[in-house]
Every structure is written in C-alpha cells, then in structure tokens.
From TrEMBL:
Pfam families: S1_2, WHD_CvfB. It comes from Aquirufa avitistagni. InterPro entries: CvfB_fam, CvfB_S1_st, CvfB_WH, NA-bd_OB-fold, WH-like_DNA-bd_sf. Residues 7-65 form the Conserved virulence factor B first S1 domain. It comes from the Bacteria. This is S1-like domain-containing RNA-binding protein. Residues 221-278 form the Conserved virulence factor B-like winged helix domain.
Length: 279
C-alpha cells in the first residue's frame, strides 16, 4: 500500500503548500487539507507529517493531527454521543463522531453509555463506521491455539448473567465468571488473565489468577505478604467469614484455605484458633 492513501489510518504525507485555512498535503492522487487548527507550530514546505485520514461531516477526505481512540480494524470501548433515525454516533476523539448503523447494533444504544465496537472501512460507502456485532469480525477457530493455564491479554467489555465477557488476544471471546472476579475491572482496558477451560464451541473460560499449583503459590504469597504487613499476625482463620477474607485479601475462602495449606506445609506459618502468624 505504499504511495496509496489509507483512509482510517495514519499516513506519512508531504506538505505541498500553505493556505490561510491550513496546509495541503500530497495525497498521491489528490491534495488533502490539514485544517489550520491542526497545523503544527513548526513546519516547512516539503516536510513530512504524520496525520490521520478520515472523512469530515461533508464527506470530504481530510487530515488531522488529533489521535482517534482507535483506527480501522481495531476494537474500542466508546461512548454514545447522539442517536439519529439512522444510527448512533460515538466519541472516538475526532471532530466528526463515529457512526454505528442500527443494523450493526445488537441492542439499543443509549446516549451517555459506552459500548465495545469494531471499527472498519465500509466497502460500499468508503466511510469509516463501527459495529457492535464484534463476533462476526473474529476469526473462526476451535480454540486449539489456547492451552489451559496460558496467560493472555483480555479486554473486558460486557456484563452478562454469568459474569464479564472479554475479548481475548483480539481474536476470541472469553468469559470471566462472577465467582472468579475479585477486583474492579475497567471495561475497554486490557488486563492479563489465564485460560481455565477451552469449550467445545471454541470459546474460553477465564480467571484472573493462575490455575493449578502455580496459582495456589500466588495465593500463598499474597497471604504471606499480608501477614508480614500485619506485623507477623493476620487476624483470619479457617472459620472466618468469606466476606471478611475477601475484604482483607481480595480472594475467595476456598483459595484462602488452599493458600494457608500451602504455607503451613512449607513450615512458614503457625495456625491458631483466631489468627495466623509467621513461624
């Protein structure tokens, strides 16, 4: 795609002339306007500049030095700014908002709420649009590229009755079940998770901490650090309420018991009726 203008992406273009309302850039086949409010302080004719190319409100191809929250062929968690008879417009960081046609919504979108969308260049209109039907843009695989215990990057994006739906490695849908979420997650922000199961349909079950013995060791380390931070004595024990354990350590009572058992077997702690202490 060298020497070809790429709409919806960053382009490295040459400044060819200055006008009162901005700069014109070499768009290979046409001149592209960079409006005055986006012109850098220092420049010279024939300098190259990095700009994002899109269509303005009058459907003209235009350049900007603003950086959108995502480019085409990327996913983003964006807020709806307005609703029209044809669809909704989302804030993606540019002067012109991003359009989501009603046909690309799987639920009614509301102003002020954020949704996870895929941004793409519509082949029929040559316009940048977005779709909330993200699964149709993912590769179809059986999930065999993942193994239980794998550490992966996940983007949480939707609450469901089961838990939190996530996009894994930008290619697969995964689920963090309610009983596995012990911390606040920011929708749209990548976080490290671990594969706990690969389902028959290729979708993934996820958890925030490592599975198996490695995960138990991680829980044990957290408990040990909490004991040290409490001057060698932690006011928790096997009869402590699950809510109290979660409040103090951010883990389930089941994981607490496994972690304590690991520390006890390693002869690092002493168990008491009302607390745990360093040995």
């Amino acid at each position: 795609m060298e020497n070809e203008l790429r709409i919806g992406e960053y382009n490295h273009l040459r400044i060819i002339k200055e006008v009162p309302f901005g700069l014109y850039l070499d768009g290979y086949e046409d001149e592209i306007l960079l409006p005055l409010q986006y012109v850098p302080e220092n420049y010279q004719i024939d300098d190259f500049i990095d700009v994002f190319i899109y269509r303005d409100s009058e459907d003209r191809i235009i350049a900007t030095t603003l950086k959108p929250k995502a480019t085409i062929d990327q996913f983003a968690y964006l807020e709806v700014k307005s609703v029209t008879p044809l669809g909704v417009f989302m804030d993606w960081g540019l002067a012109k908002d991003l359009f989501v046609p009603f046909s690309q919504q799987f639920q009614k979108m509301s102003v002020g709420r954020s949704y996870f969308v895929y941004i793409y260049l519509d082949g029929q209109t040559d316009r940048i649009v977005a779709s909330a039907r993200i699964e149709k843009f993912l590769p179809v695989t059986d999930g065999s590229e993942f193994t239980i215990g794998d550490k992966v990057s996940a983007i949480p994006f939707e609450h469901t009755d089961l838990g939190i739906k996530c996009l894994v490695n930008n290619c697969k849908i995964g689920m963090l079940f309610k009983n596995q979420v012990f911390t606040n997650l920011t929708f749209g922000e990548p976080t490290d998770v671990y594969i706990s199961n690969v389902r028959a349909d290729g979708k993934l079950d996820l958890r925030l901490e490592q599975v198996g013995m490695v995960r138990i060791d991680a829980q044990a380390e957290r408990i040990l650090n909490a004991i040290k931070a409490s001057n060698g004595v932690l006011k928790l024990h096997d009869k402590s309420p699950a809510e109290e354990i979660y409040f103090e350590l951010g883990m389930s009572k089941k994981d607490f018991k496994k972690g304590v058992g690991s520390l006890y077997k390693s002869k690092l702690i002493t168990l008491h009726s009302d607390c745990i202490s360093l040995l």
